[in-house]
Amino acid sequence: MDTSNSHEIMINETTPLVPAKGSTKPRTPLPKLQIGILITLQLAEPIASTSIFPYINQLIRELGITGGDDAAVGYYAGIIDSLFFVGQALTVLKWARLSDRIGRKPVLVIGLLGTCISMLCFGLSTNFWSLVVSRCMCGFLNGNVVVMKTMMGELTDSTNMAQGFALIPIVWCIGGFVGPLMGGTLARPQDHWPALFSGSFWRNYPYFLPCGVAACLLILALVMMTIFLEETLSTKRRPKFTSTTVSVSSSPDRELLVKSSMANMPLRSLLTPSVVIPIANYAMLSFLDVSFRVLLPLFLSTPTYLGGLGFDPATIGWWMGLVGITDGVFQAFFFARITDWIGPKRLFSVSVWCYPPLVAMFPIMSWILRARGEVDYTITFALLLLICIEVTWDMAYGVVFMFITGSAPTNNVLGAINGLSQTSAAVARAIGPAMATSLFAVSKEHNLLGGNAAYIVLIALSGGLRWLAYQLPDEVQDRDE
User: The pTM is what?
Assistant: First the structure.
Protein backbone atom coordinates (compact mmCIF):
# COMPACT_ATOMS: atom_id res chain seq x y z
CA MET A 1 0.00 0.00 0.00
CA ASP A 2 2.78 2.38 0.97
CA THR A 3 4.76 1.37 -2.10
CA SER A 4 1.87 2.05 -4.43
CA ASN A 5 1.22 5.42 -2.82
CA SER A 6 4.86 6.47 -3.11
CA HIS A 7 4.89 5.29 -6.72
CA GLU A 8 1.80 7.44 -7.44
CA ILE A 9 3.45 10.47 -5.84
CA MET A 10 6.59 9.90 -7.88
CA ILE A 11 4.61 9.80 -11.13
CA ASN A 12 2.64 12.92 -10.26
CA GLU A 13 5.80 14.83 -9.47
CA THR A 14 7.86 13.77 -12.45
CA THR A 15 5.29 13.63 -15.21
CA PRO A 16 5.05 17.43 -15.80
CA LEU A 17 8.85 17.72 -15.76
CA VAL A 18 9.61 14.82 -18.07
CA PRO A 19 6.58 14.28 -20.28
CA ALA A 20 6.49 11.21 -22.47
CA LYS A 21 7.31 11.95 -26.07
CA GLY A 22 4.23 12.31 -28.20
CA SER A 23 1.86 12.44 -25.19
CA THR A 24 -0.48 15.37 -25.77
CA LYS A 25 -3.86 16.25 -24.38
CA PRO A 26 -6.79 15.55 -26.67
CA ARG A 27 -8.13 18.80 -28.12
CA THR A 28 -11.32 19.94 -26.40
CA PRO A 29 -14.10 20.80 -28.87
CA LEU A 30 -14.96 24.49 -28.90
CA PRO A 31 -18.41 25.40 -27.51
CA LYS A 32 -19.58 26.39 -30.98
CA LEU A 33 -22.91 28.02 -30.09
CA GLN A 34 -21.57 30.32 -27.40
CA ILE A 35 -18.42 31.22 -29.33
CA GLY A 36 -20.52 31.80 -32.44
CA ILE A 37 -22.69 34.29 -30.55
CA LEU A 38 -19.62 35.92 -29.03
CA ILE A 39 -17.87 36.48 -32.35
CA THR A 40 -21.11 37.82 -33.84
CA LEU A 41 -21.14 40.43 -31.07
CA GLN A 42 -17.49 41.17 -31.75
CA LEU A 43 -18.27 41.66 -35.44
CA ALA A 44 -20.57 44.61 -34.77
CA GLU A 45 -17.82 46.58 -33.02
CA PRO A 46 -15.17 46.74 -35.79
CA ILE A 47 -17.85 47.43 -38.38
CA ALA A 48 -18.93 50.47 -36.37
CA SER A 49 -15.43 51.67 -35.55
CA THR A 50 -13.90 51.24 -39.02
CA SER A 51 -16.87 52.55 -41.02
CA ILE A 52 -15.69 56.15 -40.46
CA PHE A 53 -12.20 55.60 -41.93
CA PRO A 54 -13.00 56.08 -45.65
CA TYR A 55 -14.73 59.43 -45.16
CA ILE A 56 -13.23 60.98 -42.02
CA ASN A 57 -10.62 62.93 -43.95
CA GLN A 58 -13.19 64.26 -46.41
CA LEU A 59 -15.56 65.11 -43.55
CA ILE A 60 -12.84 67.21 -41.92
CA ARG A 61 -12.26 69.05 -45.17
CA GLU A 62 -15.98 69.70 -45.68
CA LEU A 63 -16.46 71.02 -42.15
CA GLY A 64 -13.83 73.66 -42.90
CA ILE A 65 -11.75 72.72 -39.86
CA THR A 66 -8.42 73.09 -41.70
CA GLY A 67 -9.31 76.29 -43.54
CA GLY A 68 -8.64 74.63 -46.90
CA ASP A 69 -5.16 73.33 -46.00
CA ASP A 70 -5.13 69.71 -47.21
CA ALA A 71 -1.78 69.00 -45.56
CA ALA A 72 -3.27 69.81 -42.13
CA VAL A 73 -6.09 67.25 -42.39
CA GLY A 74 -3.84 64.65 -40.77
CA TYR A 75 -3.62 66.63 -37.52
CA TYR A 76 -7.37 66.61 -36.96
CA ALA A 77 -7.93 63.08 -38.26
CA GLY A 78 -5.32 61.85 -35.79
CA ILE A 79 -6.96 63.71 -32.90
CA ILE A 80 -10.37 62.23 -33.67
CA ASP A 81 -8.92 58.72 -34.06
CA SER A 82 -7.04 59.07 -30.77
CA LEU A 83 -9.95 60.35 -28.68
CA PHE A 84 -11.71 56.99 -28.62
CA PHE A 85 -8.60 55.34 -27.18
CA VAL A 86 -8.06 58.15 -24.67
CA GLY A 87 -11.55 57.51 -23.31
CA GLN A 88 -11.01 53.77 -23.37
CA ALA A 89 -7.67 54.04 -21.57
CA LEU A 90 -9.30 55.99 -18.74
CA THR A 91 -12.17 53.55 -18.18
CA VAL A 92 -11.48 50.09 -19.63
CA LEU A 93 -9.78 48.77 -16.48
CA LYS A 94 -12.82 49.86 -14.45
CA TRP A 95 -15.11 48.00 -16.84
CA ALA A 96 -12.91 44.90 -16.65
CA ARG A 97 -12.89 44.92 -12.84
CA LEU A 98 -16.65 45.56 -12.82
CA SER A 99 -17.17 42.53 -15.06
CA ASP A 100 -15.27 40.43 -12.50
CA ARG A 101 -17.85 41.53 -9.90
CA ILE A 102 -21.25 41.81 -11.61
CA GLY A 103 -20.70 39.52 -14.60
CA ARG A 104 -19.70 39.88 -18.25
CA LYS A 105 -23.14 40.41 -19.81
CA PRO A 106 -24.17 43.61 -17.95
CA VAL A 107 -20.93 45.30 -19.00
CA LEU A 108 -21.47 44.21 -22.61
CA VAL A 109 -24.95 45.77 -22.57
CA ILE A 110 -23.55 49.12 -21.45
CA GLY A 111 -20.79 48.97 -24.06
CA LEU A 112 -23.10 48.16 -26.97
CA LEU A 113 -25.55 50.90 -26.01
CA GLY A 114 -22.73 53.42 -25.57
CA THR A 115 -21.26 52.62 -28.98
CA CYS A 116 -24.70 52.82 -30.62
CA ILE A 117 -25.47 56.26 -29.16
CA SER A 118 -22.02 57.61 -30.00
CA MET A 119 -22.30 56.47 -33.63
CA LEU A 120 -25.62 58.30 -34.03
CA CYS A 121 -24.07 61.42 -32.49
CA PHE A 122 -21.11 61.17 -34.85
CA GLY A 123 -23.41 61.03 -37.87
CA LEU A 124 -25.24 64.15 -36.66
CA SER A 125 -22.06 66.14 -36.01
CA THR A 126 -21.70 69.43 -37.86
CA ASN A 127 -18.53 70.80 -36.24
CA PHE A 128 -15.23 69.63 -34.82
CA TRP A 129 -16.31 69.67 -31.16
CA SER A 130 -19.37 67.49 -31.74
CA LEU A 131 -17.05 64.95 -33.38
CA VAL A 132 -14.82 65.17 -30.30
CA VAL A 133 -17.71 64.58 -27.87
CA SER A 134 -19.09 61.60 -29.81
CA ARG A 135 -15.71 59.85 -30.05
CA CYS A 136 -14.96 60.45 -26.36
CA MET A 137 -18.39 59.06 -25.44
CA CYS A 138 -17.68 55.92 -27.47
CA GLY A 139 -14.40 55.36 -25.63
CA PHE A 140 -15.72 56.10 -22.13
CA LEU A 141 -18.73 53.78 -22.38
CA ASN A 142 -17.07 50.88 -24.16
CA GLY A 143 -15.32 48.09 -22.28
CA ASN A 144 -16.50 45.39 -24.65
CA VAL A 145 -13.17 44.49 -26.24
CA VAL A 146 -11.62 43.42 -22.96
CA VAL A 147 -14.76 41.65 -21.74
CA MET A 148 -15.09 39.65 -24.97
CA LYS A 149 -11.47 38.54 -24.81
CA THR A 150 -12.00 37.52 -21.19
CA MET A 151 -15.05 35.49 -22.19
CA MET A 152 -13.07 33.80 -24.96
CA GLY A 153 -10.45 32.83 -22.37
CA GLU A 154 -13.16 31.38 -20.13
CA LEU A 155 -14.73 29.42 -22.99
CA THR A 156 -11.43 27.80 -24.05
CA ASP A 157 -8.62 25.82 -22.45
CA SER A 158 -5.00 25.13 -23.29
CA THR A 159 -5.89 22.57 -26.00
CA ASN A 160 -8.17 24.80 -28.10
CA MET A 161 -6.93 28.28 -27.18
CA ALA A 162 -5.22 28.83 -30.53
CA GLN A 163 -8.46 27.98 -32.34
CA GLY A 164 -10.50 30.27 -30.13
CA PHE A 165 -8.20 33.27 -30.20
CA ALA A 166 -7.65 32.91 -33.94
CA LEU A 167 -11.28 33.94 -34.29
CA ILE A 168 -10.73 37.36 -32.70
CA PRO A 169 -8.48 38.79 -35.44
CA ILE A 170 -10.66 37.02 -38.03
CA VAL A 171 -13.71 38.89 -36.75
CA TRP A 172 -11.83 42.19 -36.76
CA CYS A 173 -10.65 41.46 -40.29
CA ILE A 174 -14.19 40.78 -41.47
CA GLY A 175 -15.31 43.94 -39.70
CA GLY A 176 -12.39 45.70 -41.34
CA PHE A 177 -13.82 44.56 -44.68
CA VAL A 178 -17.49 45.37 -44.07
CA GLY A 179 -16.96 48.60 -42.11
CA PRO A 180 -14.88 50.60 -44.61
CA LEU A 181 -16.87 49.19 -47.52
CA MET A 182 -20.09 50.26 -45.84
CA GLY A 183 -18.73 53.66 -44.80
CA GLY A 184 -17.27 54.44 -48.22
CA THR A 185 -20.37 53.25 -50.11
CA LEU A 186 -23.03 54.87 -47.91
CA ALA A 187 -21.25 58.19 -47.31
CA ARG A 188 -22.97 61.12 -49.06
CA PRO A 189 -25.91 59.00 -50.32
CA GLN A 190 -27.49 62.07 -51.98
CA ASP A 191 -24.65 61.95 -54.53
CA HIS A 192 -25.09 58.24 -55.34
CA TRP A 193 -28.86 57.80 -55.06
CA PRO A 194 -30.44 61.27 -55.43
CA ALA A 195 -33.91 59.83 -55.99
CA LEU A 196 -33.91 58.19 -52.55
CA PHE A 197 -31.88 60.72 -50.54
CA SER A 198 -32.82 64.12 -51.91
CA GLY A 199 -34.19 65.70 -48.73
CA SER A 200 -32.60 68.52 -46.77
CA PHE A 201 -31.71 66.12 -43.93
CA TRP A 202 -29.21 64.27 -46.14
CA ARG A 203 -27.71 67.54 -47.38
CA ASN A 204 -27.20 68.70 -43.78
CA TYR A 205 -25.96 65.32 -42.50
CA PRO A 206 -24.32 63.62 -45.51
CA TYR A 207 -22.50 61.04 -43.35
CA PHE A 208 -25.40 59.96 -41.14
CA LEU A 209 -26.41 56.91 -43.22
CA PRO A 210 -23.30 54.76 -42.52
CA CYS A 211 -23.48 55.75 -38.85
CA GLY A 212 -27.18 54.89 -38.67
CA VAL A 213 -26.66 51.48 -40.31
CA ALA A 214 -23.80 50.76 -37.86
CA ALA A 215 -26.09 51.71 -34.94
CA CYS A 216 -28.77 49.30 -36.21
CA LEU A 217 -26.21 46.48 -36.32
CA LEU A 218 -25.26 47.23 -32.72
CA ILE A 219 -28.91 47.08 -31.64
CA LEU A 220 -29.29 43.68 -33.34
CA ALA A 221 -26.14 42.48 -31.57
CA LEU A 222 -27.54 43.69 -28.24
CA VAL A 223 -30.82 41.78 -28.73
CA MET A 224 -28.95 38.61 -29.74
CA MET A 225 -26.65 38.84 -26.74
CA THR A 226 -29.50 39.38 -24.28
CA ILE A 227 -31.42 36.34 -25.52
CA PHE A 228 -28.77 33.77 -26.39
CA LEU A 229 -25.40 34.51 -24.75
CA GLU A 230 -24.77 32.74 -21.45
CA GLU A 231 -22.82 34.29 -18.61
CA THR A 232 -19.26 32.91 -18.36
CA LEU A 233 -18.26 34.32 -14.97
CA SER A 234 -18.52 31.30 -12.66
CA THR A 235 -20.05 33.17 -9.71
CA LYS A 236 -22.78 34.71 -11.87
CA ARG A 237 -23.90 31.65 -13.79
CA ARG A 238 -27.39 30.27 -13.32
CA PRO A 239 -27.60 27.30 -10.93
CA LYS A 240 -28.16 24.84 -13.81
CA PHE A 241 -24.54 25.33 -14.92
CA THR A 242 -23.09 24.16 -11.61
CA SER A 243 -25.76 21.83 -10.23
CA THR A 244 -24.31 18.75 -11.95
CA THR A 245 -20.84 19.31 -10.53
CA VAL A 246 -20.22 17.71 -7.14
CA SER A 247 -17.14 19.33 -5.68
CA VAL A 248 -16.00 21.70 -2.99
CA SER A 249 -15.65 24.48 -5.55
CA SER A 250 -19.41 24.43 -6.29
CA SER A 251 -20.50 25.13 -2.71
CA PRO A 252 -22.05 28.56 -2.01
CA ASP A 253 -19.38 29.40 0.55
CA ARG A 254 -16.63 28.62 -1.92
CA GLU A 255 -18.25 30.74 -4.65
CA LEU A 256 -18.67 33.60 -2.21
CA LEU A 257 -15.00 33.36 -1.29
CA VAL A 258 -13.98 33.37 -4.97
CA LYS A 259 -16.19 36.40 -5.66
CA SER A 260 -14.71 38.26 -2.72
CA SER A 261 -11.15 37.49 -3.84
CA MET A 262 -11.94 38.79 -7.32
CA ALA A 263 -13.37 42.02 -5.97
CA ASN A 264 -10.43 42.71 -3.64
CA MET A 265 -7.46 41.41 -5.64
CA PRO A 266 -4.85 44.21 -5.64
CA LEU A 267 -3.65 44.99 -9.13
CA ARG A 268 -0.06 45.38 -7.96
CA SER A 269 0.08 41.70 -7.05
CA LEU A 270 -0.63 40.83 -10.70
CA LEU A 271 2.32 42.80 -12.09
CA THR A 272 4.76 39.90 -12.34
CA PRO A 273 7.19 39.52 -15.27
CA SER A 274 5.10 36.70 -16.74
CA VAL A 275 2.14 39.11 -16.95
CA VAL A 276 3.94 42.37 -17.76
CA ILE A 277 5.99 41.08 -20.73
CA PRO A 278 2.99 39.92 -22.83
CA ILE A 279 1.14 43.14 -21.97
CA ALA A 280 4.14 45.24 -23.04
CA ASN A 281 4.25 43.35 -26.35
CA TYR A 282 0.54 43.95 -26.87
CA ALA A 283 0.88 47.68 -26.13
CA MET A 284 3.76 48.14 -28.58
CA LEU A 285 2.00 46.00 -31.18
CA SER A 286 -1.13 48.14 -30.81
CA PHE A 287 0.83 51.38 -31.11
CA LEU A 288 2.55 50.35 -34.33
CA ASP A 289 -0.55 48.76 -35.82
CA VAL A 290 -2.90 51.68 -35.19
CA SER A 291 -0.26 54.07 -36.56
CA PHE A 292 -0.19 52.06 -39.79
CA ARG A 293 -3.98 51.82 -39.95
CA VAL A 294 -4.57 55.57 -39.64
CA LEU A 295 -1.83 56.30 -42.16
CA LEU A 296 -3.31 53.92 -44.74
CA PRO A 297 -6.56 55.83 -45.47
CA LEU A 298 -4.72 59.14 -45.03
CA PHE A 299 -2.11 58.10 -47.60
CA LEU A 300 -4.78 56.80 -49.98
CA SER A 301 -6.79 60.05 -49.74
CA THR A 302 -3.88 62.52 -49.81
CA PRO A 303 -3.59 64.37 -53.15
CA THR A 304 -0.94 63.01 -55.50
CA TYR A 305 1.05 66.26 -55.46
CA LEU A 306 1.63 65.67 -51.72
CA GLY A 307 2.79 62.09 -52.21
CA GLY A 308 -0.52 60.23 -51.74
CA LEU A 309 -2.69 58.34 -54.19
CA GLY A 310 -5.67 60.75 -54.29
CA PHE A 311 -8.39 58.07 -53.95
CA ASP A 312 -12.02 59.00 -53.22
CA PRO A 313 -13.89 57.52 -50.17
CA ALA A 314 -15.54 54.74 -52.21
CA THR A 315 -12.20 53.54 -53.63
CA ILE A 316 -10.60 53.73 -50.18
CA GLY A 317 -13.48 51.66 -48.80
CA TRP A 318 -13.01 48.98 -51.47
CA TRP A 319 -9.26 48.68 -50.89
CA MET A 320 -9.59 48.61 -47.09
CA GLY A 321 -12.38 46.09 -47.46
CA LEU A 322 -10.12 43.88 -49.58
CA VAL A 323 -7.46 44.09 -46.87
CA GLY A 324 -9.98 42.98 -44.27
CA ILE A 325 -11.50 40.05 -46.15
CA THR A 326 -8.12 38.72 -47.31
CA ASP A 327 -6.77 38.95 -43.78
CA GLY A 328 -9.85 37.26 -42.32
CA VAL A 329 -9.82 34.34 -44.75
CA PHE A 330 -6.11 33.71 -44.18
CA GLN A 331 -6.45 33.83 -40.38
CA ALA A 332 -9.46 31.49 -40.48
CA PHE A 333 -7.75 28.77 -42.49
CA PHE A 334 -4.09 29.03 -41.53
CA PHE A 335 -3.50 30.77 -38.17
CA ALA A 336 -4.10 27.77 -35.88
CA ARG A 337 -2.16 25.45 -38.22
CA ILE A 338 0.84 27.78 -38.46
CA THR A 339 0.80 28.25 -34.67
CA ASP A 340 0.86 24.48 -34.14
CA TRP A 341 3.56 24.08 -36.80
CA ILE A 342 6.19 26.63 -35.79
CA GLY A 343 5.03 27.58 -32.28
CA PRO A 344 3.52 30.82 -30.98
CA LYS A 345 6.75 32.64 -30.13
CA ARG A 346 8.41 31.97 -33.46
CA LEU A 347 5.25 33.03 -35.32
CA PHE A 348 5.11 36.25 -33.30
CA SER A 349 8.73 37.02 -34.18
CA VAL A 350 8.09 36.43 -37.89
CA SER A 351 5.05 38.70 -37.76
CA VAL A 352 6.78 41.64 -36.08
CA TRP A 353 9.64 41.49 -38.61
CA CYS A 354 7.05 42.25 -41.30
CA TYR A 355 6.41 45.77 -40.00
CA PRO A 356 9.38 47.57 -41.63
CA PRO A 357 8.55 46.36 -45.17
CA LEU A 358 4.86 47.05 -44.50
CA VAL A 359 5.47 50.73 -43.72
CA ALA A 360 8.12 51.00 -46.45
CA MET A 361 5.38 50.31 -49.01
CA PHE A 362 4.09 53.89 -48.55
CA PRO A 363 7.19 55.70 -49.86
CA ILE A 364 7.67 52.97 -52.48
CA MET A 365 4.20 53.65 -53.87
CA SER A 366 4.85 57.41 -53.82
CA TRP A 367 8.04 56.85 -55.79
CA ILE A 368 6.24 54.61 -58.31
CA LEU A 369 3.53 57.23 -58.80
CA ARG A 370 6.08 59.99 -59.39
CA ALA A 371 8.02 57.81 -61.82
CA ARG A 372 5.00 56.71 -63.85
CA GLY A 373 2.89 59.85 -63.51
CA GLU A 374 -0.41 58.05 -62.85
CA VAL A 375 -2.09 55.35 -60.78
CA ASP A 376 -1.79 52.26 -62.98
CA TYR A 377 -1.29 48.50 -62.65
CA THR A 378 2.05 48.93 -60.83
CA ILE A 379 0.29 50.74 -57.98
CA THR A 380 -2.33 47.99 -57.96
CA PHE A 381 0.43 45.37 -57.71
CA ALA A 382 2.09 47.33 -54.88
CA LEU A 383 -1.20 47.53 -52.95
CA LEU A 384 -1.69 43.77 -53.34
CA LEU A 385 1.84 43.19 -52.03
CA LEU A 386 1.04 45.46 -49.07
CA ILE A 387 -2.00 43.29 -48.30
CA CYS A 388 0.14 40.13 -48.31
CA ILE A 389 2.61 41.65 -45.85
CA GLU A 390 -0.18 42.95 -43.62
CA VAL A 391 -1.77 39.50 -43.42
CA THR A 392 1.45 38.11 -41.92
CA TRP A 393 1.81 41.10 -39.58
CA ASP A 394 -1.74 40.66 -38.23
CA MET A 395 -1.08 37.11 -37.03
CA ALA A 396 0.81 38.70 -34.13
CA TYR A 397 -2.50 39.64 -32.49
CA GLY A 398 -3.81 36.10 -32.13
CA VAL A 399 -0.49 35.00 -30.64
CA VAL A 400 -0.20 37.82 -28.12
CA PHE A 401 -3.78 37.20 -26.92
CA MET A 402 -2.74 33.61 -26.21
CA PHE A 403 0.28 34.75 -24.17
CA ILE A 404 -1.82 37.25 -22.18
CA THR A 405 -4.53 34.67 -21.41
CA GLY A 406 -1.92 32.06 -20.49
CA SER A 407 -0.26 34.51 -18.06
CA ALA A 408 -3.34 34.62 -15.79
CA PRO A 409 -2.75 32.43 -12.71
CA THR A 410 -6.52 31.70 -12.49
CA ASN A 411 -9.68 32.61 -14.38
CA ASN A 412 -10.74 34.70 -11.38
CA VAL A 413 -8.25 37.42 -12.35
CA LEU A 414 -8.47 36.97 -16.11
CA GLY A 415 -10.74 40.01 -16.41
CA ALA A 416 -8.30 42.17 -14.45
CA ILE A 417 -5.32 41.02 -16.54
CA ASN A 418 -7.21 41.64 -19.77
CA GLY A 419 -8.19 45.02 -18.35
CA LEU A 420 -4.55 45.88 -17.71
CA SER A 421 -3.59 44.76 -21.20
CA GLN A 422 -6.42 46.70 -22.84
CA THR A 423 -5.62 49.81 -20.83
CA SER A 424 -2.00 49.64 -21.98
CA ALA A 425 -3.12 49.06 -25.57
CA ALA A 426 -5.63 51.92 -25.37
CA VAL A 427 -2.94 54.33 -24.17
CA ALA A 428 -0.72 53.21 -27.04
CA ARG A 429 -3.58 53.58 -29.51
CA ALA A 430 -4.39 57.03 -28.16
CA ILE A 431 -0.81 58.18 -28.78
CA GLY A 432 -0.32 56.35 -32.09
CA PRO A 433 -2.86 58.07 -34.39
CA ALA A 434 -2.08 61.60 -33.18
CA MET A 435 1.66 61.03 -33.44
CA ALA A 436 1.60 59.21 -36.78
CA THR A 437 -0.78 61.62 -38.54
CA SER A 438 0.98 64.67 -37.10
CA LEU A 439 4.34 63.32 -38.28
CA PHE A 440 2.76 62.67 -41.68
CA ALA A 441 1.44 66.24 -41.87
CA VAL A 442 4.74 67.77 -40.73
CA SER A 443 6.68 65.57 -43.17
CA LYS A 444 4.54 66.74 -46.08
CA GLU A 445 4.42 70.40 -45.04
CA HIS A 446 8.18 70.74 -44.52
CA ASN A 447 9.33 67.94 -46.86
CA LEU A 448 11.26 66.24 -44.04
CA LEU A 449 13.40 63.42 -45.41
CA GLY A 450 11.64 63.81 -48.73
CA GLY A 451 8.25 63.76 -46.98
CA ASN A 452 8.99 60.31 -45.50
CA ALA A 453 9.97 61.18 -41.92
CA ALA A 454 6.83 59.57 -40.45
CA TYR A 455 7.61 56.23 -42.08
CA ILE A 456 11.25 56.24 -40.98
CA VAL A 457 10.29 56.98 -37.36
CA LEU A 458 7.78 54.11 -37.27
CA ILE A 459 10.27 51.67 -38.77
CA ALA A 460 12.83 52.68 -36.12
CA LEU A 461 10.28 52.24 -33.31
CA SER A 462 9.44 48.74 -34.54
CA GLY A 463 12.87 47.68 -33.27
CA GLY A 464 11.47 48.01 -29.75
CA LEU A 465 8.77 45.44 -30.51
CA ARG A 466 11.33 43.02 -31.93
CA TRP A 467 13.30 43.27 -28.69
CA LEU A 468 10.15 42.70 -26.59
CA ALA A 469 9.28 39.66 -28.68
CA TYR A 470 12.51 37.98 -27.60
CA GLN A 471 11.48 38.38 -23.94
CA LEU A 472 8.33 36.26 -24.32
CA PRO A 473 8.41 32.74 -22.84
CA ASP A 474 9.16 29.96 -25.29
CA GLU A 475 5.69 28.46 -24.84
CA VAL A 476 2.29 29.71 -23.78
CA GLN A 477 1.70 28.85 -20.13
CA ASP A 478 -0.80 26.03 -19.61
CA ARG A 479 -3.33 27.32 -17.11
CA ASP A 480 -4.92 23.86 -16.82
CA GLU A 481 -1.90 22.29 -15.16
Answer: 0.69
